[in-house]
Amino acid sequence: MAIRLLKLLGSFIATVLVSTVVVFLLLRVLPGDPATVALGIEATTEQLAAWREQYGMNTPLVVQYFEWLGGLLRGDFGVSYVTGQNISPVITDRLQVTLILVGLAMVIAIAVAVPLGTIAAIRHQRPSGAIISGVSQFGVAVPSFLVGMLLIVFFAIELDWLPSGGWVPPSEPAEFLQHVTLPVIALGTVQASILTRYVRSAVLEIQREDFLRTARSKGLTANVALVRHGLRNAGIPVLTVVGLQMAGLLVGAVVVERVFTIPGLGSYLVDSVGNRDLLAVQAVVVVLVIAIVLINFLVDLAFTLLDPRLRRAA
């Protein structure tokens, strides 16, 4: 078991290091000069040279990479080329907002998808199961930003029940719930539809397994046998989808945050791209990549804990 954990941890560290190299190099090959963007096209050659020296842009790429990587290991993302402010506190504040949105959306998606997907599988030959499957299929085809705009039109403009955007920290619970409800529903609805389809498929497959037929032959009803012996096995393939959806939610939050004017990591990324703030874009992308790799690492770890075959192999 310890050897498998060390292998997973080694794979995680190696993937993160390779990702930092790829992100660093890709952003360096983009057209445009950060010095010209920061100082303007009327800047003199001496001013441009002084700016590059101030920000270490005149050193070899290898030196720049290791200086940047050393800062990452210390939690220092550098100073913005455009605003001159330290990027680290901005990333920390914005990341908290995004993680709250993604976490709540994932909770809603799981809470909706697991019971609905199970019901759709149990009643797959009945009208209720077909209706759930049809609705979930429709939900998969609708993008999150469109759901968000429809929610704003109906609940914020027409009914005036909830605010159309903005952000309030969780320290003010009432206002926080009002502002977070629509964006969380917009993010969670599509993911719930996708997850419902996978839960239905996993439960249908488990229902055909021999061990469930054995459990029913011993006197258990089909539903009791499924709850006691089937759902845990069905959860193993679903866990992979949940991990992928968490990564998808991090990316999807970029658009939803803009729709609801939420100051999250996605909004910061879009603003930094528009301002050509190379170091800020680099920091946000690396944080997102590390978060996605970490999610995959945790999913692999959960597999080892849930699947006895992997534990025995370890």
Automatic annotation (TrEMBL):
Keywords: Cell membrane, Membrane, Transmembrane, Transmembrane helix, Transport. It is found in: Cell membrane. It is a multi-pass membrane protein. Its main location: membrane. Residues 95-299 form the ABC transmembrane type-1 domain. The chain crosses the membrane at residues 12-30, 99-122, 134-157, 177-199, 238-260, 280-306. Pfam families: BPD_transp_1, BPD_transp_1_N. GO terms for cellular component: plasma membrane. PROSITE patterns: ABC_TM1. SUPFAM superfamilies: MetI-like. GO terms for biological process: transmembrane transport. Belongs to the binding-protein-dependent transport system permease family. This is ABC transporter permease. It comes from Agromyces albus.
